[in-house]
Amino acid sequence: MAVLIEMLRLEKSLSSAAMVLAGSLAAVPESGFGIYLGFNVYAAMLSFFLIVGAGNVLNDCFDSEANRISKPSRPIPSGRISLVKAFIYSALLFISGVALSGFINYVCFAIAVIASLSLVLHSRFLQDRMASGGVALGYVTASSFLFGGAAAGSLSLPLWMFVSTFFSSSASKTIKGMMDIESDRRFALKRIIHGIARRIRKTKGRPAEDGGLRVIRTFTFVFLSLSVAVLPVPVVLGTAGISYSVVVAPAAILLAAAAIFSASRGRRRLARARRMVKRARVLVIVAFVVQALLGF
Q1: Percent of the chain with pLDDT over 90
Q2: Which phi and psi angles does 226 have, rounded to 5°?
Q3: Which of 154, 170, 190 is where one domain is finished?
Q4: What's the count of helices (H) and strands (E) in the chain, helices before strands?
Q5: Is residue 204 located within the same domain as residue 172?
Q6: Are the beta carbons of 34 and 2 closer than 8 angstroms?
Q7: Boundary (domain end) residue, out of 139, 154, 169
């Protein structure tokens, strides 16, 4: 039982459930607090917890060979659970999470299916692709707000939470990939074990071509800039007011600074950019929830 819980990576799974709750809180002005006495919100939190947990387990399955060298204490390399049983466990979690979403409403079911497919695609094909892998994980992270809003019966504010978080989270995941390239060892090891050492040899030992990294840096800069540009939209549309603006302003500054740092070389600057993005995302969530609760 302990190994099954460990493979869920509770910190990530529980945080995804918390973001579903935040998305549902943003729906309060239209749905009212009565929704929290019902089934939908709690079912949505459990459903997304199971889906994200399934993705974490599946990631361990496809990373089992790499982890034998880099993380031998993980459940599969250490022999505490077999690879076949881990695959079955992941499949059961995915099925349970998606099935539970079907009891909420059709919108939640659709979001759950797409999030599950994104996690499967990422684990199987996109782990070593910084931009597309970042987009896949960014969608899953951001869709938690849509999921919560759909469960609570309103998407007006959760939609903008989704859009802003999609851009910032996709950039954050991509920055993490660039940090691995800067440190070189972990990223190169993973690529070798995944059977693409040939690309590394072509670049004379460098993990990626300079031109490729410039494209990735441009990608993160553009996505972080878009996440800043999205933040004033709810105010312009009249769905958010002063309380939202006061809280979200520091987030916009942090995201703008992160965009500048993400375009720079060096692991320290990338790490600083990622920390800024994480803090900004928390402020954005707080801003939407404060707007929903205060209403001005």
Answers
A1: 53
A2: -65, -35
A3: 154
A4: 15, 0
A5: yes
A6: no
A7: 154
Provide the residue type at 284 as one letter: V
**Residues 184-229 pLDDT 10s:** 445 455 554 555 444 544 444 444 445 567 788 888 999 999 999 9
- Count Cα neighbours of 100 within 13 Å in the Cβ-side half-sphere: 21
**Angle CA 67–72–75, to nearest 5:** 85
- Give the H/E segment covering residue 204: none
Torsion sign (Cα): 19, 140, 112, 49: negative
User: Is residue 119 within 8 Å of 41, Cβ to Cβ?
Assistant: no
Contacts by 230-234 with C-beta closer than 8 Å and gap 24+?
A: 230/160, 230/163, 230/164, 230/167, 231/164, 231/255, 231/284, 233/160, 234/157, 234/160, 234/291
Instruction: Name which of 32, 42, 21 is nearest 153 in CA terms.
Output: 32
Distance of alpha carbon 142 from alpha carbon 122, whole angstroms: 15
- What domain range includes position 72? 1-154
CA of 184: how far to CAs of 52, 180, 221, 240, in Å? 28, 6, 22, 44
Neighbours of 80 (CB within 10 A): 15
